[in-house]
## 1
Amino acid sequence: MTKRERMLNVLANKPVDRVPVAFFRHFTQPGDWNMGLERADAFERNIEGHRGALEKFNPDVIKVMNDTLMMMPMDVSFVEHASDLAKIQPISVDCEYAQKQIELTRRVLEIYKGCDAPVYVTAFSAAWVLRNAMTIGLPVAGADEPQMRMLMEEDPEAVGDCLMRMSEGIAALNRVLMTECGADGIYFSVANQAGFFPKEFHQKYVAPSEKYVLAEAKKIRDMNIVHICGYHGHGNDLSLYTEYGAAAYSVAVNAEGTTMADAKKLFGGAPVIGGFTQDGVIYKGTREEVKKAVWNILDNAGQTGVVIGADCTVPNDIDDDRFNWVRDAAAEYAKEH
């Protein structure tokens, strides 16, 4: 099978000659993240990192890593009350940030020219973006987010309306990245680590905006993946996402304390991606230990509707040849089963 044929079979829950492998890592250091508009050197490192990685591991699934442009920049300095959120409007595809995303995507796709793997662009939900704008540091589990909590309590409808407006801009940019740049789908990062949004709040005010982004992407191509971010062991309530209608779900099974097989059942048989922790066996195990881990994952989940990956991005300094170990182990498993 070609890599594209293999992934299409995965998404259709059809047999494959071997299970695909999809590990992703950042190509810049945290100090460069989100600095693409301010520092040309960081922006270039972000792009060129893909080239070096390709030399060691020709991926089964390509993801454009937009380290330096991850979070859409937002000025929220004027927000004192929930009513102020009405001033936040959708991002324009003509703005500097969107144009830089388009440039980055086109240049990375040029690096991968000739690869037959499907290509995904990284997108973050409006909830991620808004929380990030109002937080010092990453808005992961345990972050201090008093302003966001205050807005949620003051007027949840205003928060929900703001997220939906923001999502219109996110969807519009995704549309350009797919129709004009040639990406096959979005790798859509969502999260509600440690239950930051109470379940009822999430269902009523957060989920609609995230489902909207996915639905808009699906109008173009039905290959979109929801990445339920379990960054460094921070779990989510996976049941919040079972009705999102994605083609596949990237699940942090280790952070959630579940298995690939159980996650697949939870999502109604939809394809799942994952299996490894971020910085455990895949990062420091021997080749035999990596093979054993791969076989254990496949013993549990089977070889249909499954992609082997990690809970989230693996360490920046990982040896990309380790991904070849995983792929070889999956191929050996297929031959013996």
## 2
Amino acid sequence: MKTQALKVFFICLLLATNTYANDYQPTRKVKKQTVKVALLLDTSNSMDGLINQAKAQLWEIVNELSYAKSNGVTPNLEIALYEYGNSNLSSREGYIRQVLQFTSDLDEISENLFSLSTNGGSEYCGQVIQTSLNELDWGANNRDLKMIFIAGNEPFTQGKVNYKDAITDAKEKDIIVNTIFCGDYNQGISGMWQDGAFYGGGDYMTINQNKHIVHIVTPYDNDIIILNKRLNDTYIHYGSYGYSKYSNQAKQDMNAESLDEAVVVKRAVTKSSKLYNNAEWDLVDASEEKEIDYSTLKKKQLPKQLQNKSAKEIKVYVEKKRKERTEIQQKIQELNKKRKVYVTKKQQENTKKNELESVMINAIKKQAKKKNYSW
């Protein structure tokens, strides 16, 4: 009888334990969605206009993506960059070069766009698509939005890799292929650029790569530029490559300024968004993501004004700069809302078409709906 009673007791205990486990299992953390964009840019002769549009309009494209939401949360953004069709590149590699692996470092993307130059060559669209599929880490999260944008002006059919085979591989990896023909719409169709987009589940677009970019100046631009300079003063570099990254931030401001004052404004808006994160080299961003032991920081790798400070004093300084940055970013965002209203009104008077920025944004928004993104 005792043995039977013990069996019943343990069975009841086991059932109770299983019920408890089923009711109280910890909630699995859902991985944040990521927008992954691979830009494949033709850098052969006559493509200087395309590169200039990419340089000038990068920030507006990023700004539009910063307004995207998935389940109420802003997704991560990673951009990869390839150049192809440049005779300075290796013929053995199909005149193709990976400029950047997927990165969320927006200053690094800007730096590399400004480093591109054009030279005559052979443009192998199928091969550069296949190369980007093989070399890039596209990840396995089926909730991510994964897109290729390939831009060029020669027939899509050139090279030893059939574009249909490459695009079939992309579709199997849930990657959308968009094509941007630099030239006449019908010429792009006959060159099979539309067919490439059709197979890739993406959009076929055309741009005038030689069109002069018209930036709309607004009454809010000067205030945003002043705030951007104040924003730069809130960055605190640390680590072995912190100072070089800090210097590159200023360099990319100068690169934007070399194009147009309005590009500086667009870049400043990006710097006030969640997508502009520099936790790898900036103490303010880093302190938002993790607990920092300030006593372990190497003083020589910090700004001069902090090298003789105690760990406690550095922490107080970081907190002070965090508050300053938050206030400045909020002011930029408020001014940008007014700026966007002004720009929208002006664009209605003089609609902007056939530019890299507008065609990419339209395609991204349309395709993002399939992954439940909203704006």
